[in-house]
Amino acid sequence: KEILEKYHDLFTMKWEGVAGNIRVPSQAEWEQLLTNCSVFLFYGMERFMSHILLNRLVAMNIPKCHLIILLDLMRSKQSHQRITKSDIHKSCLRIAIERPTETAVLLSLTGVRSIIANQWYTTLQENAERLEILSESLLNIGRTTGQTVHILQK
C-alpha cells in the first residue's frame, strides 16, 4: 500500500488488481489481469505458479504484457504448510514446472516479453526492499529493466 501511495501520481492510477490478503483471486481474475496488462506484478507467498492453473496458462496468449515482475518465493510457516498440502496432489513434473526458470519459460511462450523473478526463496523484508528498488528505478527515475536488474544484483 505504501508503494501505491508513494507512486500514485506517476502511473499507479491505472493499476488494477487485487491487493492485500483478504481473498485469493479466482482463476478468471488471474486470466483477466494477465491478458489485459502491459506490466504484471505478483508480490506474494510461495511460488507464483502454485496460484495459477497450468493448463489455462499455457493456453493463454499474452502479447500485450511487456513485463512480468514475480516477487514470489516468500515463505512463512503457514504458507509452507499450505503449499506442502497442495503439492501432495501434484506430480513431480508439475512441481518442477513451478520452479523459477520453468515459470519464466512458460510465461515467455505465452507472449510475455520480459520477466524479472526471484530465483530462490527469500524473506518478506528482502522482497519489500526489492519492490522499493524496482518501483523507484522503473517508475520514478525511468531506468530500463536491464539497468534496474543490474541494480538489484548489487
From TrEMBL:
GO terms under biological process: axoneme assembly; cilium movement involved in cell motility
Q: How is this protein named in the record?
A: CFA46 protein
This protein's species is Stercorarius parasiticus (Parasitic jaeger)
